UniProtKB/TrEMBL annotation:
<dbReference type="Pfam" id="PF07859">
    <property type="entry name" value="Abhydrolase_3"/>
</dbReference>
<dbReference type="InterPro" id="IPR029058">
    <property type="entry name" value="AB_hydrolase_fold"/>
</dbReference>
<feature type="compositionally biased region" description="Low complexity">
    <location>
        <begin position="1"/>
        <end position="19"/>
    </location>
</feature>
<protein>
    <recommendedName>
        <fullName>Alpha/beta hydrolase fold-3 domain-containing protein</fullName>
    </recommendedName>
</protein>
<dbReference type="InterPro" id="IPR013094">
    <property type="entry name" value="AB_hydrolase_3"/>
</dbReference>
<feature type="region of interest" description="Disordered">
    <location>
        <begin position="1"/>
        <end position="25"/>
    </location>
</feature>
<dbReference type="InterPro" id="IPR050466">
    <property type="entry name" value="Carboxylest/Gibb_receptor"/>
</dbReference>
<feature type="domain" description="Alpha/beta hydrolase fold-3">
    <location>
        <begin position="108"/>
        <end position="327"/>
    </location>
</feature>
<dbReference type="GO" id="GO:0016787">
    <property type="term" value="F:hydrolase activity"/>
</dbReference>
Length: 361
């Protein structure tokens, strides 16, 4: 029996159905909380491209360093460069410190996320995340409080990252036993972008460092981009929390040099200027995290393909249900899994790093 026009219309998908976007699996409370965070952060962005830092300081209070062990990890604030007033927070597992008194602890130089403009090394979420990394991986974590946009644009955070490596290169600066021949750079989102560019700069002239040897790069959902809109950006815009097209575009405008677009080397790793250092054997192995509900995932996959095409060691950890910045939320099982993977990455690359260090003149 043929269906009536009315029945056919009832069976056909409506525009609303076609426009429906996937939602990441999480509790209603978590979804609501992240939506509030997004709205509040957006409210601090001014039309002239500046940020209301006063309001942000109230919304993102700095937590103090704790010199006595908290959950097995102690922390302290250190000055990396007095001229630029660059600071960092150093985390170390108390139990491992005694054992490492002879050889020293491996160290991860960490860069927090926040679109180059938001958050800090003392933000509650990043203080807690660095504690977990130090505890699970039995490493020291130097979380760099790099200069933020729009007050400090490209290349300020990259310069700060290199300054952190130079700080570690001088043994006189070490407040506890560190083995900087097993040094890693790591970060999430904008911090992942910074970690990549710092590794690239290091690889351009590794001989300028007496002691520091990069053993690995941990890029957690790094913030890359370009002028085109990828499938994942369009598909997940407005559906996934934290990252949206409008928000990401604002962050690039706040960070890149005036007049630059997203083809700039800081944003687009395919830019010819962004290739410098990647061919060097000193560019380290990479552990890359990708989330299935991260609008930036297509750029991250291209990043992995680019490095693999150059013969680089890239290990990709895929989390199909993960949102952007998933690993800072302990409520997600994937968060614990990835930090365990980080610990394994450090443990597995340590022998290779030691061998490479012994080959240096």
């Amino acid at each position: 029996m043929a269906s009536t026009p009315a029945a056919a219309m009832a069976e056909a998908p409506t525009p609303t159905t076609l426009a429906r976007k996937p939602k990441p699996p999480m509790s209603r409370l978590m979804r609501l909380s992240l939506k509030v965070v997004d709205r509040v952060a957006d409210a601090t962005r001014r039309a002239d491209g500046t940020l209301n830092r006063c309001a942000l300081s109230l919304l993102d209070p700095r937590v103090p360093a704790i010199s006595s062990p908290c959950r097995g990890v102690a922390s302290r604030d250190v000055v990396l460069d007095r001229a630029s007033r660059l600071r960092a927070r150093l985390f170390h597992p108390a139990a491992a410190t005694a054992k490492a008194s002879a050889a020293g602890l491996p160290v991860i130089v960490f860069f927090h996320g926040g679109g180059f403009a938001f958050l800090s090394a003392a933000s509650p979420a990043y203080d807690a995340a660095c504690r977990r990394i130090a505890r699970y991986a039995s490493v020291a974590v130097l979380s760099v409080d790099y200069r933020r946009a729009p007050e400090h644009r490209f290349p300020a955070p990259y310069d700060d990252g290199l300054a952190a490596l130079r700080f570690l290169d001088d043994p006189k600066n070490h407040p506890l036993p560190l083995d900087v021949t097993r040094c890693y750079v790591a970060g999430d989102s904008a911090g992942g972008n910074i970690a990549h560019h710092v590794a690239r700069r290091y690889a351009l002239d590794p001989s300028s460092f007496r002691n520091v040897r990069l053993a690995g790069l941990v890029a957690i959902q790094p913030f890359f981009g370009g002028e085109e809109r990828t499938d994942s950006e369009l598909r997940l815009d407005g559906a996934a929390p934290i990252v949206s097209i409008d928000r990401a575009d604002w962050m690039w405008r706040a960070f890149l040099p005036p007049g630059a677009d997203r083809t700039h080397e800081a944003a687009n790793f395919a830019h010819p200027a962004a290739a410098a250092g990647l061919e060097s054997p000193a560019f380290p192995p990479v552990l890359l995290a990708i989330g299935g509900f991260d609008p930036l995932q297509d750029w991250q996959r291209r990043y992995a393909e680019t490095l693999k095409g150059m013969g680089k060691d890239v290990r990709v950890a895929e989390y199909p249900d993960a949102i952007h910045a998933f690993y800072v939320f302990p409520v997600f099982d994937d968060a614990r899994d990835f930090i365990i993977r980080m610990a394994q990455f450090v443990a597995e690359s340590a022998p290779a790093a030691a061998a490479a260090a012994s080959d240096q003149p």
